[in-house]
């Protein structure tokens, strides 16, 4: 049976088609003037000093870790309740993930869990299931805005004993979020955004790095194009030169002008989409707050604006309830299967390291993401509520 209420449907601005056609007619479709315009407009939207558009949030994370120029094999703190791309970025950059447990209420690391992970870096087991000792302190940290809830970067950096310039923010869920009146990414040393098809501002694929530091942004900008000193737009413009240098080893991780043109149209529509998300969340809150056995998403929002990329509830018998909702025509998802439960990371990090996140394991088994997207109709929302209510009441 196909789902009558999909888990998500990408929102597409009515301006996208014309924007793409204009790029195709321009004769320049890879990184060029549209990408530069998108970077400036997204920077203005965030209030950030610099934005570098890249191929994905995963490549953004890896580029940032490479641009930090850490010693090979450095310990990098990361929550285990995260998408596998964040763990892969650490490994691809040549470093060692150190898993951080979460706070049960916020679903993100707390200063206490960060401090605990930082303290065990010395002497922690490493390698493929082995126990070779390490005597290094954490050199960097990835922090994630889980579901759109903005983390307190300053508090987590202090707990880890790290300068803010060693913290990379995974803001894949972040557009629209703010803490203390400041949008996520507005003052970050390195904040990485995603424009994947399911995200709040979907392009299809794509990402960006926002930074307050020009030297760091320039380094990421060069590294997204193999580390070349000139991109193709500058080389092939009238008066340009084919000469270039490679001063640092980079990746092929640039955004195209086709993607950027879509992004510019989508960015203009984002505020209205965020308002719709907030209305859906309020409706969910009202309808679900008294259901037995249900834990609603983070409620302590003093000084915080949630981006509401996800509406993550906690339920008993999660897998069975998910199956019952699917049978009722409602699609759901899980964010995320904890990284420490993945076969590859268990082999790389070892059983001891992967056993260090008990709250993640317990809470992760209860998480269920409900449909949340601007195109979700009121009738669709009511169907989600009805199906979940029925599934929970049969268990009370």
Description:
The protein has 396 residues and is of the alpha/beta class. It has 14 helices and twelve strands. It has helices spanning 16-26, 33-46, 57-67, 84-92, 111-119, 153-160, 214-223, 232-236, 257-288, 318-327, 343-349, 351-354, 358-364, 378-393; strands at residues 50-54, 75-79, 96-100, 138-144, 167-170, 178-179, 182-183, 191-194, 207-211, 304-305, 311-314, 367-370. A seven-stranded mixed β-sheet has the order 1-9-8-5-4-2-3, with helices on both faces. The protein has a three-stranded antiparallel β-sheet with strand order 7-6-10, with no helix packed on it. Helix 6 links the parallel strand 4 (138-144) and strand 5 (167-170). Helix 3 (57-67) packs across helix 7 (214-223) and helix 9 crosses helix 14 (378-393). The two termini are 27 Å apart. Mean pLDDT is 94; it is low at 125-134.
Quick tags:
alpha/beta, three-stranded antiparallel sheet, 396 residues, seven-stranded mixed sheet
Write the layout of secondary structure elements.
Layout (H helix, E strand, L loop, with lengths): L15 H11 L6 H14 L3 E5 L2 H11 L7 E5 L4 H9 L3 E5 L10 H9 L18 E7 L8 H8 L6 E4 L7 E2 L2 E2 L7 E4 L12 E5 L2 H10 L8 H5 L20 H32 L15 E2 L5 E4 L3 H10 L15 H7 L1 H4 L3 H7 L2 E4 L7 H16 L3
Parallel strand pairs: 2-3, 2-4, 4-5, 5-8
Antiparallel strand pairs: 1-9, 6-7, 6-10, 8-9, 11-12
Helix pairs in contact: 1-9, 2-9, 3-4, 3-7, 5-6, 9-14
Helix content: 25-40%
Largest sheet: 7 strands, mixed
Order of helices and strands: HHEHEHEHEHEEEEEHHHEEHHHHEH
Task: Report the count of strand segments.
Answer: 12
Q: Given the helix and strand composition, which structural class is it?
A: alpha/beta
Q: Count of DSSP helices? A: 14
Outline: globular
Strand order of the largest sheet: 1-9-8-5-4-2-3
Distance between the termini: 27 Å
Low-confidence region ranges? 125-134
Radius of gyration (CA) equals 21 Å
| Mean pLDDT level | 94
Beta strand % = 5-15%
């Amino acid at each position: 049976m196909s789902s009558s209420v999909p888990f998500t449907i990408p929102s597409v601005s009515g301006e996208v088609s014309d924007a793409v056609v204009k790029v195709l007619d321009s004769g320049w479709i890879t990184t060029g003037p549209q990408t530069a315009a998108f970077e400036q407009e997204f920077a203005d939207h965030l209030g950030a000093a610099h934005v570098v558009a890249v191929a994905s949030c995963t490549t953004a994370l890896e580029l940032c870790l490479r641009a930090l120029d850490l010693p090979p094999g450095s310990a990098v703190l990361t929550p285990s309740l995260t998408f596998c791309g964040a763990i892969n970025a650490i490994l691809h950059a040549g470093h060692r993930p150190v898993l951080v447990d979460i706070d049960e209420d916020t679903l993100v690391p707390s200063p206490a869990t960060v401090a605990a992970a930082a303290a065990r870096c010395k002497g922690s087991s490493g390698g493929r299931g082995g126990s070779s000792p390490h005597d290094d302190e954490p050199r960097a940290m990835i922090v994630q805005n889980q579901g759109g809830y903005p983390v307190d970067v300053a508090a987590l950096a202090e707990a880890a004993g790290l300068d803010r310039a060693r913290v990379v923010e995974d803001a894949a869920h972040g557009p629209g979020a703010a803490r203390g009146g400041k949008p996520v990414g507005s003052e970050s040393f390195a904040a990485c955004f995603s424009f994947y098809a399911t995200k709040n501002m979907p392009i299809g694929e794509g990402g960006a790095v926002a930074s307050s530091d020009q030297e760091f942004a320039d380094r990421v900008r060069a590294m997204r194009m193999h580390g070349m000193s000139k991109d193709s737009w500058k080389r092939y413009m009238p008066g340009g030169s084919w000469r270039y240098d490679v001063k640092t080893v980079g990746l092929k991780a640039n955004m195209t002008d086709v993607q950027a043109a879509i992004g510019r149209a989508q960015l203009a529509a984002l505020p209205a989409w965020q308002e719709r998300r907030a209305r859906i969340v309020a409706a969910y809150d009202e309808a679900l707050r008294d259901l037995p056995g249900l834990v609603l998403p983070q409620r302590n929002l003093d000084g915080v604006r949630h981006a509401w990329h996800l509406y993550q509830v906690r339920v008993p018998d999660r897998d069975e309830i998910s199956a019952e909702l699917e049978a009722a025509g409602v699609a759901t998802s899980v964010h995320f299967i904890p990284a420490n439960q993945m076969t590859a990371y268990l082999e790389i990090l070892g059983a001891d390291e992967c056993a260090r996140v008990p709250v993640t394991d317990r809470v992760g088994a209860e998480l269920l993401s409900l449909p949340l997207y601007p195109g979700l109709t009121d009738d669709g929302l009511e169907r989600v509520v009805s199906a979940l209510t029925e599934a929970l009441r049969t268990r009370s």
